[in-house]
Amino acid sequence: MKKIINNPSDIVEEMLSGYISAYSRYYERVPGQNAVMLKERRKDKVALVIGGGSGHEPLFIGFVGKGLADAAAAGNIFAAPNPQLIAETAKAVHEGKGVLFVYGCYAGDNMNFDMAEELLDMEGIKTAHVRVWDDCASAPKERIHDRRGIAGDVYVIKIAGAACDAGLELDEVLRITEKARDNINTIGLATSPGSIPGLNKPTFELGEDEIEFGMGLHGEPGIERTKMQSASHLVKRMYTELKKEMGLKENDEVAVLVNGLGSTTLLELNIVYHDLNKLMAEDKLIVHDAEIKSYCTCQEMGGFSITILKLDEELKKYYDAPCFSPYYARGEIK
Amino acid sequence: MKSLTVEQTTDMIIKACDAIVENMPYLTEVDSKIGDGDHGIGMAGGMEKARATLKEKRPFPDINSVFKMTGMAMLNSMGGASGVIFGTMFLGGVKNLEPVHELDGHLMTRIMRGSLDAIKERGKANLGDKTMVDALEPAVVALENGNKEDLVQLMKAAKDAAWQGVENTKNYIAKYGKAKTLGERAIGYQDAGATSVAIIFNAMYEYVESLAQS
After folding, report:
1. Which of B42, B79, B123 is the closest to A81 by Cβ?
2. Domains observed in chain A
3. Fold of B3-213
4. What is the pLDDT, as a whole number, of residue B170?
5. Contacts of B42 in chain A (CB under 8 A)
6. Structural domain spans, chain B
7. What is the DSSP letter of A142?
8. Is A79's CB within 8 Å of B77's CB?
9. By three-state DSSP, how is residue A1 classified?
10. Does the structure show a pLDDT above 90 at B202?
11. pLDDT at B214
């Protein structure tokens, strides 16, 4: 595996340094920490802090921006950030109205963010958290707390950022963000493994002619391994799972994200959306917004995921609010 | 031998750090079979940090500080589930403990019992879930049942129990971590976290044993 790195132990540090210096008109580093924060932050609002293991860029650092997160804590490769790093990041952007944490539901993230909240509680800072568990292939609905967070993070962060920007109180921001989380599901498909930078080892093994539905970002086994098929077959299988999971029906209004996992090309992702769009039209879903990009990745992992956010009037209002980061923008120039 | 001084305790923990760093390739190999393969890197990174902190900040005023410094260094450098769990292995037992200046069999038992309880509370794992608890719990039980007047004998019983615990993890289906999703396929493979616990106890025993010899 050829990786363009220097010393493996400097990977996270150097990645952050590059990102923050290139986009220094927007960002600065949280002093002494592996964390990015927005320079010009809106005052008098709940602070939104996100984070997780590194290696999934642009998540999470790429979602620090106006109308998005105020800061992101970057853990080691595929490992949750530590409690001190999370707590210091939160303190750096806290405006006195509390802090909301949004992160993917993984054992390591849950424990480290919980400890950070305990540390902040001792300092009298009000906190709350929303764990994203959109991956409906990772566990049955009855064990929803065992489900993992994948590309659905994007929509949860988007809505949470807008709710914070609206100047709402922490409990109200929490309610809206949980509502968004509960209306989002994702299913993924892997065609080839990613690698752990510095370890020179693929994250899983998959035959040259095989794909796996529902495989996790770190190679967690999915729901079915089959031979490679045409895009339309793959998309139909995935869409059917999502439709069943979410009970989607005629006139439901949705936002849709086709997310590449790292090495799958935009050409392929566009074909995925071509097939997906036909299926949604057959079912008479109303597509409020859609996009095709690689946001939640695992190095050179091949494959994609489909995320659907079911909207109502309230969620639509926050979804449509403008936002900007170097990797993600919504809202139009009027 | 009955007990260790604060300085000897510091040396003992440094030996445990050395052992984990030396065993990084072995831990990577163990973890690669059913996990991400990054347990060795994470543990070695955390214990390297702990070792550096212990060397830089010694001498310590009490036994409590030795364990606390080790746990904090691991917790705040590793991240991930292992950072919290292994940090707590050193932090949990000295939380709310009055300052002590001598580590005897009774105190070792008390600290490790406190750590085990804190880990189970935080991580919600129990015996048989194929985690580090499968090595730590038998080690703690061996401490509790062992002869606390003879530290060498006591630590030998603990490390033997920890290694037996590692063997037992081969029979379990994983309830946590990446191996969770493997189901029956994880059977036959030992847990990497449990292996780290056994390596740590093994190193602590070897230190105590060598001290008794000299």
Report:
1. B79
2. 9-182 (3.40.50.10440), 184-311 (3.30.1180.20)
3. 1.25.40
4. 96
5. 76, 79
6. 3-213
7. G
8. no
9. coil
10. yes
11. 85
Preferred mutation among A111, A201, A212 to probe B, highest tally of B CBs within 10 A = A111
What's the ipTM?
0.87
Nearest-angstrom CA–CA distance, A282 and A280: 5
Q: pLDDT, tens digit, for every residue of A65-79?
A: 999 999 999 999 999
Angle between helices B80-91 and B39-57 (to 10 degrees): 40
Reading the block at residue A133, the tokens are 């568990």
Contact residues of B toward A, CB < 8 A: 28, 32, 36-38, 41-42, 45, 75-85, 122-123, 176-178, 181-182
Q: From the centroid of its chain, how far is CA B156?
A: 14
* CB A74 within 8 Å of CB A30: no
Q: What per-residue confidence (pLDDT) applies to A217? A: 87
- The structure tokens listed for A32 are 């002494």
A218 catalytically annotated:
yes
Active site residue A56: yes
User: Which of A76, A223, A299 has the most B C-beta neighbours within 10 Å, making it the best mutation to test the interface with B?
Assistant: A76
Instruction: Tell me which amino acid residue A309 is.
Output: L
Cβ distance of A108 and B176 shorter than 8 Å? no
Q: What's the DSSP call for residue A5?
A: -
- Give the SS3 label for residue A326: coil
Distance of CA A207 to the CA centre of its chain: 28
pTM to 2 decimal places:
0.93
The helix-helix angle for A153-165 and A313-320 (nearest 10°) equals: 80
Alpha helices in chain B (DSSP H): 6-22, 24-34, 39-57, 63-78, 80-91, 105-123, 133-145, 151-169, 192-213
Q: b/e for B114-126, b at 16 or more Cβ within 10 A?
A: bbbebbbebbebe
Q: Give tens-digit pLDDT for B33-89.
A: 887 778 999 999 999 999 999 999 999 999 999 999 999 999 999 999 999 999 999
Distance CA A5, CA A52 (A): 21
Is A216 in Cβ contact with B77 (below 8 Å)? Answer: no
Q: Is the pLDDT of residue B183 over 80?
A: no
Residue B210 C-alpha, separation from nearest chain A C-alpha, in angstroms:
34
Residues of chain A with pLDDT under 50: none
* Alpha-carbon torsion angle A220, A68, A24, A85, nearest 10: -60
Q: Which residues of A touch B32 (CB under 8 A)?
A: 201
Nearest CA in chain A to B44: A9
Average pLDDT over residues B188-197: 96
Rounded to 10 degrees, what is the CA torsion of B151, B152, B156, B157? -40
